[in-house]
Design goal:
four-stranded mixed β-sheet, Spore Coat Polysaccharide Biosynthesis Protein SpsA, Chain A, 8 helices, 228 residues, globular, alpha/beta
């Protein structure tokens, strides 16, 4: 972001990005929110705790899988919805739809995807001949052929709790980043035929991740269009 401010604290319509994510959870009836904090943890906690979220510490930034694993002691219930704190346009209707699909199918994991004209930077959804999700490949690990795929990973999932944390403990950091990827859990579950569902979001803006000032400007424009 070219800033010393933690990314999730950058303002959109006068509120931190992460506050919009928690708003969507609350509107969807998801009231037990756990935020994984690391960089500028005190400032992030000060932003989310008044909104009813609890915080857990990721003391070393070792990837998305490690971040979610840090939350295990704080997470209750049989279902875990994982969201990104830098995707402020996610809405309650999408969250409710994902949970409904997850429950209806009895899946171990329901992953949300979207089609983007420019998928640069996003993980790619790799599907089999049957159209079912087989695995997710991060952009930096993708081959040229895989980078041509425009079906991208949103970073939004609903997991069966036991499957999520059991598989997270098996993840290894064998990738270009040397990180523990949450996306590897999806591939494990698909490989084991544990039940992986793919929910394709019709509105790419709803899963837009803010990684640059240009992304933030795009999010602001889309947000203004929704509220005008």
């Amino acid at each position: 972001m070219g800033s010393d401010l933690a990314k999730v604290l950058h303002p959109l319509a006068g509120r931190p990005l992460v506050a919009h994510v928690i708003d969507a959870c609350n509107a969807a009836g998801i009231t037990d929110c756990v935020c994984v904090v690391g960089w500028q943890r005190e400032a992030v906690a000060a932003a989310v705790e008044p909104l009813g979220a609890r915080c857990v510490l990721q003391d070393r930034q070792l990837g998305t899988g490690h971040a979610v694993l840090c939350a295990e002691p704080a997470v209750t219930g049989d279902e875990v919805l994982v969201l990104c704190g830098d995707a402020p346009l996610v809405d309650a209707a999408l969250l409710r739809r994902v949970v409904a699909t997850h429950r209806r199918t009895g899946a171990a994991c329901t992953a949300v995807a979207a089609r983007m004209a420019d998928p640069t930077g996003y993980g790619r959804m790799i599907t089999g001949d049957d159209g079912r999700l087989a695995r997710i490949v991060e952009h930096k690990d993708a081959t040229p052929e895989q980078r041509a795929i425009n079906l991208v990973n949103s970073g939004l999932y609903c997991f069966r709790r036991t499957d999520l944390f059991e598989r997270l403990r098996q993840v290894k950091p064998t990738n270009a980043q040397g990180e523990y990827y949450l996306t590897d859990v999806v591939g494990m579950l698909a490989r084991d035929q544990a039940g992986v569902e793919l929910e394709i979001c019709d509105d790419p803006g709803s899963v837009l991740g803010v990684n640059t000032p240009a992304d933030l400007a795009t999010a602001a424009r889309l947000f203004a269009g929704r509220t005008s």
